[in-house]
């Protein structure tokens, strides 16, 4: 059936509304996966930077002990890097929470609906294949048998279509809620960190029930 | 001579003051090279982070167009990452200036004095070797010849010692001046960037005559 459809030799049952929603969900999933991959490299690069800040702070501290003339300069540099690492730990927790939640959204929540969609698409193919056969037969001995089978495929297809429709609706609400919260966390934690606002950073973590220290 | 010295079979001419200064310079060079290496990874990790921020900002902008319900969330996230990249470019210029100046200090300025130190150390070895020989000869036909050679080695040694002494003095002043300025730049640029203070970041760049855009 699917080959006939590609060749344009047969008709397919189309539900414009649901098919559009499915298309949109697949696009959304793709985009969220991109965001997830970028958030992961964000976290990696940031964590590498923190490691360098840690080493640099130690090195500045050591030089502070050894260098009488540049004692102050090494001292405030060591302190600044130390504070950046300290706040960085908090931001890293926020980033990792964002990543973990987005990962669950993509690989569990959305994936669950995608699996139902695949079942629905198979049922649609089977239903259309049976419908095409029935149209070609037009009259004959196996007519009744075929019509029973057709009825069963039709029911299965419609049942799965309704499943998909319900799941899409719930997913859309749920997904929007989760992303709204996560995007707010991501933004507020980053904005607080990069404005050196320790209080705002702590407040953001508290707001999202995240631990301050990993 | 250097083998005899290691075996403790001969004496060596020691100038405690200058030898201590040489030892300190070698330690300082080692420490500055560590700082240089760390500053280079700082700049690399930071630049990788900026690249991710750039991609993330674009991705958020794209999602802003596509997602009606999360339009605001994607919008402010895109904007924040964009501003971070914009300020990051300036910080990166400051970091690279710090790296380039420290590199010159280690590989040119300090290295120049180190080369003179090596010549001085060779002259000291030759001078001590000649002195030892002269002591062993005590009396003999080649005494005058040897004493002429000894005189020449002695002069060469003392000339180089004075060279080293002068270079060490100038290097110390110069090195302290350069590092004082660089450590201030490094600190102020980083502190301004990580407190989201664009004005202070611009002012720091101006203070050190650095371009805002690379």
Could you tell me the number of beta strands of chain A? 0
CATH superfamily label of the domain at 2-36 and 96-207 in chain A:
Arfaptin homology (AH) domain/BAR domain
- Structural class, from helix and strand content of chain A? mainly alpha
Q: What is the gyration radius of chain A calculated from CA atoms?
A: 29 Å
Helix content of chain A: over 70%
Number of DSSP helical runs of chain A: 5
Catalogue the unreliable spans of chain A: none
Largest interface: A-B, 45 and 45 residues
The arrangement of helices and strands of chain A along the chain is HHHHH
Arithmetic mean of pLDDT of chain A:
91
- In percent, how much strand structure appears in the residues of chain A? under 5%
Oligomer: homodimer
**Main pleated sheet of chain A:** none
| CATH fold label of the domain at 2-36 and 96-207 in chain A | Substrate Binding Domain Of Dnak, Chain:A, Domain 2
